[in-house]
Amino acid sequence: MLSQLLRELEIRVAKLEELNSESHAPSAEKDFFDNPQKREVLEFAISKAISNLTDTAVQSVQNADNPKETKAQAARKSKKAPPTPSENKKEPGGKQFPTLNRFVITTEVEEAPDSLPQSHDEVLKAEKPPTSLEQKKAVRRAYLLRKYR
Question: What's the pTM?
Fold first, then answer.
């Protein structure tokens, strides 16, 4: 819990440092759908990090013959990068929907009704098609193979 809070603070500080160092033109970005998958790719590209795992980034600089940055720079850039999938699972909703918890859905309803599924296991699934169709396909395939050999 404490390590997660420290990571979030490090990310905030890194982003604030970046905002102070650059001037940005006004944007209408907030008016469009915020797709986390595309946003995270953009954030990763903007961070110019080798990896979003600090240990991996530092190790990469260590193993490089001619590193372009220091270990401290690599560690700082990796903190700016978006979280890893394992970190996403630790966020609220990560247990039930590990990859979908990044999508924030706002609704008019304050509390979710009991009729909504709470996990993937509770979601209704389509029934398997009858095996007779599969058997017909197998028979037809065998017939065509014999005919055109």
Answer: 0.47
